[in-house]
C-alpha cells in the first residue's frame, strides 16, 4: 500500500502494524521527508542516494550521496534559513548515523541527486509552484578533488574559481596547471625536517617544522579525530607524526561535541620554518 508519506509498504494485511518491506529503506535518487540517509556500521546497512546515468536513463549513474563515519560529521553547508526541520542523529556508541528532514506546515519537499552529481532541495506549498531552496554544488569549489592534493579552490565572482597551492607548496606539474588541469595537486617546495630526520626519535623528528594558519577552509573528507586537552597538545601530536600534514582544534564550548577534540590533516599545512 502507498502511504501518505510516499512510502510504499508491503504488509500481511492492511491492519497489520509491522511492514514486511518498505520503499523508504531503499532510496533511489530522491529523499522524501521522514526518509533516512545514513548507515548502521554494526549491521552494515547503508542508505544512500544513487544518481541516474542520465536524465532519461534511470540505470545506475556515477554519483552517490550519503554519510561517512568521519567525526565530526560532515553534511552539506546550509544557512539558517534552510536548517529548520533538518536533523542529524549521530550515535557513536551504536555505530549509527542518520540524516533526515521534515516540515510541520503544509510545505512538501524532496531532495534529489542529478545525473551530474548535484544535490537539490525543492519545495512547494500545497504542491504547487515548485521552488529551488538549496543546491550543492553551487560552484567549482564544491567539486570533489578539483585542485588535487595540497591545493585549494578559492571562490570568486568570476565564472572560473581560483585554484592555488597552499603556502609552501608548488604545482606538481606546471604544464598541467597551465592547461587548467589541477587534479595532480601540489608538492612540498622545501623538504620537511620531519622527513629528513628519520633516524631520530619521534619527538625530535619534527623539530624545526611549524604551521601556517589558514581560515575558512573545509575539513577534508578523510581526517583523523583524536582526543586532545588543548590546542597546543593537538599541535604537538601533529608535529610528532610525519604523516600529519595539518591540524585543527575544536573547542567543545562552541561545538556540538561533548569534549575537546583534535582534527588532523585539515585546515592548515605544515611548513619549514625559516
UniProtKB/TrEMBL annotation:
SUPFAM superfamilies: alpha-D-mannose-specific plant lectins. Residues 194-274 form the Apple domain. GO terms for biological process: recognition of pollen. Pfam families: B_lectin, PAN_2, S_locus_glycop. InterPro entries: Bulb-type_lectin_dom, Bulb-type_lectin_dom_sf, Pan_app, S_locus_glycoprot_dom. Keywords: Disulfide bond, Glycoprotein, Kinase, Lectin, Receptor, Signal, Transferase. PROSITE patterns: PAN (PS50948). GO terms for molecular function: carbohydrate binding; kinase activity. This is G-type lectin S-receptor-like serine/threonine-protein kinase. It comes from Prunus yedoensis var. nudiflora.
Amino acid at each position: 500500500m502507498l502511504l501518505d508519506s510516499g512510502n510504499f509498504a508491503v504488509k500481511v494485511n492492511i491492519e497489520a502494524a509491522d511492514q514486511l518491506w518498505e520503499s523508504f529503506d531503499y532510496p533511489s535518487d530522491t529523499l522524501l521527508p521522514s526518509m533516512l540517509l545514513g548507515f548502521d556500521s554494526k549491521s552494515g546497512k547503508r542508505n544512500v542516494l544513487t544518481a541516474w546515468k542520465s536524465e532519461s536513463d534511470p540505470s545506475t549513474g556515477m554519483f552517490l550521496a550519503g554519510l561517512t563515519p568521519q567525526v565530526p560529521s560532515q553534511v552539506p553547508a546550509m544557512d539558517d534559513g534552510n536548517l529548520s526541520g533538518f536533523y542529524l542523529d549521530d550515535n557513536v556508541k551504536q555505530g549509527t548515523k542518520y540524516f533526515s528532514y521534515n516540515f510541520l506546515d503544509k510545505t512538501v519537499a524532496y531532495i534529489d541527486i542529478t545525473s551530474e552529481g548535484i544535490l537539490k532541495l525543492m519545495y512547494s506549498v500545497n504542491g504547487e509552484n515548485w521552488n529551488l531552496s538549496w543546491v550543492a554544488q553551487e560552484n567549482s569549489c564544491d567539486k570533489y578533488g578539483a585542485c588535487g592534493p595540497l591545493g585549494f579552490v578559492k571562490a570568486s565572482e568570476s565564472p572560473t574559481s581560483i585554484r592555488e597551492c597552499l603556502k609552501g607548496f608548488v604545482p606538481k606539474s606546471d604544464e598541467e596547471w597551465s592547461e587548467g588541469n589541477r587534479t595532480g595537486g601540489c608538492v612540498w617546495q622545501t623538504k620537511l625536517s620531519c622527513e629528513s630526520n628519520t633516524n631520530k626519535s619521534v619527538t625530535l623528528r619534527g623539530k624545526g617544522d611549524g604551521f601556517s594558519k589558514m581560515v575558512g577552509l573545509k575539513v577534508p573528507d578523510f581526517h583523523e579525530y583524536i582526543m586532545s586537552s588543548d590546542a597546543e597538545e593537538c599541535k604537538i601530536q601533529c608535529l610528532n607524526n610525519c604523516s600529519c600534514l595539518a591540524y585543527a582544534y575544536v573547542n567543545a564550548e562552541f561545538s556540538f561535541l561533548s569534549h575537546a577534540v583534535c582534527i588532523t590533516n585539515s585546515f592548515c599545512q605544515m611548513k619549514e620554518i625559516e
